[in-house]
Amino acid sequence: MKAIVFDVFGTIVDWRSSLINQFRALEQELGIELPGEALTDQWRQHYAPSMDRVRKGEIPWTGLEDLHRESLVKLLKQHGITLDEATIDRVNHFWHQLDPWPDVQRGLQQLKERYIIATLTNGNLSLMVDVARYAKLPWDMVFCAELFQHYKPDPEVYLGACRLLRLPPEEVMLCAAHNYDLGAARALGMKTAFIPRRTEYGPQQRKDLEAEQAWDAVAEDLVALSERLIE
Amino acid sequence: MKAIVFDVFGTIVDWRSSLINQFRALEQELGIELPGEALTDQWRQHYAPSMDRVRKGEIPWTGLEDLHRESLVKLLKQHGITLDEATIDRVNHFWHQLDPWPDVQRGLQQLKERYIIATLTNGNLSLMVDVARYAKLPWDMVFCAELFQHYKPDPEVYLGACRLLRLPPEEVMLCAAHNYDLGAARALGMKTAFIPRRTEYGPQQRKDLEAEQAWDAVAEDLVALSERLIE
Questions:
Q1: What three-state secondary structure class fits A75?
Q2: Is the ipTM, as predicted for this complex, more than 0.95?
Q3: Distance of residue A30 Cα from the nearest chain B Cα, in angstroms
Q4: Which keywords label this protein (chains A, B) (predicted)?
Q5: Are A124 and A212 in a shared domain?
């Protein structure tokens, strides 16, 4: 095993708390009421369906940033919230400032000493570069769906990263908090590591609480994973 | 200006001394004679012509790693040197372990505090990731010709990086030790910074000793550039 690629939203960053906090700060700044928690959860519910439109060829390639904005505009309309274009852009930009889970920086630094570490994310490149700078993530490379014009779980994304690394899939591990993502990687011959993020979707989360297959590694967090992989 | 992208071979790393040193170490290890300096200089002379075959469509897309190996095999034959396949691979891998110029790590760290910093290199991705790990280069992103299936100075490489960064060319600066590279970037509207590397090609170097146009910034090295750009 030479390289570990990481899912980012949920696995590396706590997007939900980060968005709710930013909605709250904006609410106070603008002196308006924004149902931050509901907006965050509903916005994320648009995530998979919006990418599926691209995956099924209903619309041409569209970066996540642009899918996010379309979903946001719909959502604000449903809630009867009126914001000017600049403020909508600003809210869309919340996704560029996401806090890492507490174990991430130390875990990645340790894993980087032994393995190539990279993202493997559906986020677009500029968003991911901003997240990495904001959260101080020491990636060796930022692989994202945009480079391959396919969204996960399309095989092109996983195999594209392996091809660019010039490694066979069995020498590349995907680390993710989502069983479906690991399933796609395993089907292509990659190694798999599951890290639970039991509050990614808030206190009521019901999926991905546990490993659903015997993944190659299962650990409580990235620090534990680094200890498991590096003796 | 939001981002600075850097040429790597010559601008960031001293490929010539690094290769010569590695040839010398191999010579001692194997107990054979290798004309390391001549091999290094002649190998690099194949660089532009080999990429031109791709750029002119004479051969399909071929990564630098593979062009390097073809040139090396020819060169060894010319010199009447016989090495086994594993040793040829090992020599080809010299390009993955290149030392940075002494100002690079400090200069990049300083520039990274203010700007997105990325490579913009003809090296293939896995080579560049290895160089970054070896030389401890804190890139936010590794952009390389391979992502765009075009070699510099084809416009696709420069514009591809700007597009992925979601920045107009005038908000992206190319930093390079080579006037031709900066000329290509300027023609596309990018900002330009020249750093002389007067011994890149050894003591007899005759080109790129000075800035040949009024580039947006000219500085002796990356530390000086960071002081120029960040007051």
A1: helix
A2: yes
A3: 28
A4: Hydrolase
A5: yes
